[in-house]
Amino acid sequence: MIEKAPIRFVPYLKSVIWGGEKICRYKGIEQTEEKIGESWEISAVPGHESVVSEGPYKGMRITELIECFGPELLGRDVFDRYDGKFPLLVKLIDANDNLSVQVHPDDDLAKERHDSLGKTEMWYIIEADKGAKIYSGLNRELTPDEYVRMVEDNTIEQALAVHDSHPGDVFFLPAGRVHAIGAGNLLAEIQESSDITYRIYDYDRRDAQGNPRELHTEQAKDAIDYTFYEEYKSAPADAAEADAVIAECRHFKVDRLLLDGEMTLTFTDSSFTVLMCLEGEAVIDYGAAPMPLKPGETLLLPAALTSFTLKGKATLLTTRS
User: Which of 104, 111, 193, 219 is the most buried (most CB within 10 A)?
Assistant: First the structure.
């Protein structure tokens, strides 16, 4: 029987060409590499499975936890729906430079090409430098042939919808939506458990060996949703609501919590819960020794832990599948 207690993992810090120094500062940990662009908070992506950092399961990978506890960890509904696999990847992203313009395949295309889940995701902006931008969607409808021509003549940026970025902004990005994170953004990303990205445009950047980074023009052509939508930014959560749904799809439901004092949450055992602290400090009381939670920290709450109390003053996200 699984311990009805939060599980904390060792973050996987990823050094990338566009990364910076915000993540380690934000999490309050030492930076041992340059250009840290991502912290994979909870991952079951093969080769990058999260490892428990403390407690009775210290040293176990998330996949080993699932092998041992199955539905008690994931929840019966999630266990059955995803064939015993953890369905999400939870990250922090620091864009010190612009990320590439990219798109992700949906579940059907990803299954056909990669035997994988697709990649629908959402972003919550934690910090934004003055003038920071988010690129999400198209500013007009394109045809696949127009897309290819604009990639070939390096004008695809002209077709992107551009948004000013502010802390608290939310962007929901269904698979197929062209997007890029602009320089100066620190954000939380919650997505399907997939590392499949089709890179469309990369500003003619070079890798460490001086080679252009690979583009996936043809693969992306069949993955893009070419529809123009009037609005790409999610409606802001009401600041007066302590608990507000900020993203919901068949893969995940994300709530923003404004904790100021004490709050007890009760869930069914159909799904695990991911708890992220974005701002302030909180303590989670689950019946044993209370556990502190600081900015940039993430916990996995087993499905068997159906009720807990939060105390403190903090902005938090809860995610369930």
Answer: 104
